[in-house]
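Box 3.1 A note on notation
Throughout this textbook, protein chains are presented in two layers. The first layer is the amino acid sequence; the second is a token string describing backbone geometry. Keep the layers aligned when reading.
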Amino acid sequence: MSFPDHKTLAGYLDGAPYPCGREELLRHVTASGGGDDVLGPLGGLPADARYDDLDGVWAALETNRATSD
């Protein structure tokens, strides 16, 4: 699975309704035109977690990527 860089992720999450969960992030990225390279990694985040900002989302994605390698 491809993985977005920080700048790409930031562009798709600009204006996201923080704090929010995975489903809200997915809806926002979809509405922003994000493709599978962003939606796939976000879809792998825990369903019950909440994110306060882009840095929180990025840290969670990095953790998921490190544990799945």
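The longest strand covers residues 20-21. The mean pLDDT is 94.
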